[in-house]
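Morning!

This is the sequence you dropped in the shared folder:
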Amino acid sequence: MSKPELPSLSDTIARHGLNARKALGQHFLLDPAICARIAALAGDLAGRHVLEVGPGPGGLTRALLETAAASVLAVELDARAVIALQELVAAYPARLRVLEADALGVDPAEALPAPRRIIANLPYNVASPLLVRWLRGAAALEGMTLMFQLEVAERITAAPATSAYGRLAVLAQWRCRCDLLLRLPPGAFSPPPKVWSAVVGFTPHAEDPPPALFAAMEKLTAAAFGQRRKMLRGALKTLGNAEALLNQAGIAGDRRGETLTVAEFDRLARSLASRG
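The structure's back. Tokens below.
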């Protein structure tokens, strides 16, 4: 099948007044080579149904449609971009759907058939909340390939006992294998952000934890890293009877949150969840 003729991304932006808006955390990827590289990092997309969030003028969307993906669902909050993307819908009517919505309210498992993947250059201002939302149902996903600010990507992939290790690392690595795949300079985006960005690949572990256990892990990590210099017996006081909780999990109270492995956090979360 021949590739459809489309206007350039710069032409699309100009015709639709699609200047990036800081309030929406928008930094557009316009280089086709970079977009194709990100799509390739997601692996073989043949037969896969892809969720993209924040497509903007559609640079990454075009790259995804040039793969063997079965379908792409692009979720966009900016009405200007939704209108601009209709040209792409017309070129790929059987494979592209554009949904004007807040992605935080979209359940990938309900929106797409399996096998499903999420591939996105995430808006900076909602990247972390979106990730945590998807981690709750990660087992329904084959994988995620997501762009973050480099600092956030380094926090997600950080090892214990490092300065970047914290709540986001524990939650992400508890539910997925996390790999930092690609770093991109500010100049790769329009407009250029003030910081570097990076793509992280997520491979979910089998079976999601019960909602009560995930909620316990969120409470636990918020408390453990809320005051990083505090020993756990003090940091976890807000959860009630911290010493008993630590003893049940076999963890010394004089340790600090950043020294615990993900497996140790799992033991603590299960102890907390067992309280009912």
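Headline: The mean pLDDT is 95.

More detail when I'm at my desk.
O.
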